[in-house]
Design brief:
This protein is mainly α and 379 residues long. It is built from 19 helices and five strands.
């Protein structure tokens, strides 16, 4: 397979790239040392410096201990509860899931990785899947796939890789470099800076399969491991300000392709008619929440938009209220906008909720919004 031009131009740089170095993990994980596995990791790594090779060795030694390390290495949310005053961070949800079920999921993953049945595996770990692990989103269960594959004595024919915000951006940019049509797979997320919206369900599973197939093929052409290529395109934190940072370079390819403005036009800023008036806490909360969701749908063009509850919370800048999960049928219903302002965000911009798949127990799920002009049955 021909290399995307970006990879060809950076061939030597990629080959010579040093091993990825992850910054020290957040000290919030120290709060979970009552869990013996977290305590063991904190004891072994007192400097909070946990790198890929160390995680792989932990999995080889003790699978579950290694998976806890995967979550910490990846920076899973350990200090922002999903419910007001709650103690249900994604990390805690993961730790509270029975160990035997986690290990059963790992066995399932190993079996399907051996078979190369990537789409079935991806679907099983997704929302509603039989091996869904609470608190563990796509960015984290693909980390599980990656690390358990790296820990095997013999590599799989196709090595799984991590799919998160940054590698999704990178993959989109590389497809653009090949002249591919990415419009059906990726759209610009106007509410989250330098981010793309991905498809959902089986379409996302197919995208993941294509992603790892392409990355494996490109890595073979470069004569490096797929993991080394993935760590290179993942890049460095954007605040490093490095013009050679792959994150910045690859996003530039995306922004040029989609026509994303480099900087906001200050002349087009919306000014409040009461300039100088102190904004109350209640107003500020309202403006930073469903108003942002309104803007999102106002700028949307796709016939169908699938947003996970995590993505919706990122857009509105706070956690969804408990009834979005406990009374999902009412919260996401298309009626009652005169009483519930959040529904105006999509209804006034030509969208209806066509499906909502919510796990009330684990406070997670996804919602599909479709244009009103399309015919569908709400589920």
């Amino acid at each position: 397979m021909p290399l995307p031009s970006y990879l060809e131009e950076n061939r030597e740089r990629i080959i010579q790239a040093p091993e990825q170095s992850i910054f020290l993990w957040n000290s919030s994980y120290e709060r979970y040392r009552s869990n013996k596995y977290v305590d063991e990791i904190c004891r072994r790594f007192p400097d909070r410096n946990l790198q890929r090779n160390a995680v792989i060795k932990l999995i080889q030694e003790d699978t579950y201990l290694g998976l806890v390390a995967v979550m910490i290495w990846g920076g899973i949310n350990a200090n922002r509860p999903r419910t007001k005053g709650g103690a249900d961070t994604p990390f805690q949800l993961f730790l509270h899931h029975p160990m035997e079920k986690v290990l059963e999921a790992v066995n399932y993953a190993e079996y399907h990785l051996e078979k190369g049945d990537i789409e079935t595996l991806f679907t099983a770990f997704s929302v509603g899947g039989k091996h869904k692990i609470p608190g563990v989103s796509v960015a984290y269960f693909t980390k599980i796939f990656y690390f358990i594959a790296e820990a095997m004595d013999q590599p799989y024919s196709i090595m799984p890789l991590i799919l998160d915000k940054w590698t999704a951006n990178a993959y989109c940019a590389l497809l653009i470099c090949q002249g591919g049509d990415v419009s059906k797979q990726f759209t610009i997320n106007r509410s989250v800076p330098k981010s793309l919206s991905l498809p959902s369900g089986t379409d996302l599973a197919k995208l993941y399969r294509r992603y790892i197939e392409d990355m494996n093929a490109w890595a073979t052409e470069l004569q490096i491991s797929p993991g080394k290529l993935e760590s290179f395109i993942f890049g460095l934190p954007r605040n490093t300000g490095d013009a050679t940072n792959p994150r910045n370079q690859l996003w530039e390819i995306i922004s040029t392709h989609f026509g994303v403005p480099r900087k906001p036009d200050k002349k087009s800023e919306v000014r409040t008619p009461n300039k100088g008036r102190k904004i109350t806490k209640q107003e500020r909360t309202k403006r930073s929440s469903y108003e942002a969701l309104t803007v999102y749908f106002n700028q949307a063009v796709a016939d169908h938009i699938t947003l996970s509850t995590d993505e919706i919370e990122a857009i509105i800048g706070r956690a969804l209220p408990p009834w979005a999960f406990d009374h999902a049928a009412t919260f996401w219903a298309n009626s009652g906008q005169q009483y519930h302002s959040h529904k105006k965000a999509w209804l006034r911009n030509g969208y209806l909720v066509s499906q909502s798949r919510i796990d009330a127990k684990n406070k997670i799920g996804e919602v599909v919004f479709s244009k009103k002009s399309l015919k569908f049955n709400q589920q």
